[in-house]
Amino acid sequence: MKFIESSFVKKMCEVTYESYLRYWDERNGGNVSCRLSAEELVGYEDISEVRSSHELGFKASNLAGQYYLVTGTGRYFRNVTKQPLLDLGLVRISNDGLSYDVVWGFEDGGRPTSEFPSHLMSHIERLKINPAHRVIFHCHPTNLIALTFTQDLDERHLSRLLWKMQAESLVVFPEGVGLIPYMTPGTTEIGEATARKMGDFSAVVWPHHGLFASGNSLDETYGLIEVIEKAAMIYSQIGAQGGRIKQDISDNQLRELAARFKVTPRKDFL
Ligand code: 2HA
Ligand code: ZN
Q1: 146 with 232: CB under 8 angstroms?
Q2: What is the reported pLDDT for 43?
Q3: In this structure, which residues have their CB less than 5 angstroms from ion ligand 2?
């Protein structure tokens, strides 16, 4: 079987296109990487040949030998479905963790996203606390970005605001959302700052830019982004209805919600 027919490529096409349609990934905005195990890749006939090798720019020893299906740098999410062989690549991290081999895709000489170091650093942190972790998804959700202009850039404040916009929020991200200061994208510094937060949060907000989200599958990670952005969208709609909040979900109601759904909210946030 050819790798392009795999469920991994199909799902990657689906989520990138949907994310484009929701205005979360205009032009070449956004990037996704999904860890695949060697066992899952058994039987694909076209991924054994190394097409090119590249330096990573940092040492990813913990990820040595792992495979990642990743979107390409400069590629447009609206196109991935039409040309997955150009816009996606399957890479294997070298045994010394210093480089990667492209074993499928990027057929016109493409490379992984400019945020690939940030993705890998985040994968390392998530895998330390959750061996089932697989996906890092970066995108630009409109209403969430807007919140970073109108709200204090404070993790507790932002998390509680998102929790109180709908009952679903606390259940889906009981640890809240992490936040880093505004930083230049594509740099090692933003990668390191994001990864540090990923030790505590499954999603990290980049002020005036977007979101870094993680999860055990593409569906779960995309779902997390949907719920966070929906909460931010409700806040925007409250603004459109005049902005005055007459009642909301109380702290006690949040505690009851947590008990009912057996999740543990972050202690210092609730
Ligand atoms: O891939 O979104 O943050 C383009 C970006 C960089
Ligand atoms: Zn971005």
Answers
A1: yes
A2: 96
A3: 210
Q: Supply the pLDDT for residue 196.
A: 98
CA–CA dist 260, 110 (Å, integer): 48
Which ligand is nearest to the Cα of residue 76, counting in written order?
A: 1
CB-CB contact of 137 with 32 (8 Å):
yes
State whether the beta carbon of 115 lies less than 6 angstroms from ligand 1.
yes
Which structural domain range is residue 269 located in? 116-270
Q: How far is the CA of 31 from the centre of ligand 2 (A)?
A: 8
User: Does 122 lie in the same domain as 106?
Assistant: no
Are 43 and 129 in the same domain?
no
Q: How far is the CA of 29 from the centre of ligand 2 (A)?
A: 5
pTM reported for the whole predicted model = 0.97
Of the candidates 45, 115, 229, 256, the residue annotated as catalytic is: 115
> Where is 155: in which H helix or E strand?
helix 155-163
CA of 114, closest atom in ligand 1: 1
Task: Let me know if 5 is a catalytic residue.
Answer: no
Domain boundary among 114, 140, 167: 114
Residues 151-170 have pLDDT tens digits of: 999 999 999 999 999 999 99
The residue ranges of the chain whose pLDDT is under 50 are none
Q: How many domains does the chain have?
A: 2
Q: Identify the pLDDT of residue 160.
A: 98
- Token pair 């795999």 is at which residue? 6
**99, 114, 129 - which closes a domain:** 114
For 47, phi then psi, to 5°, come to -125, 15
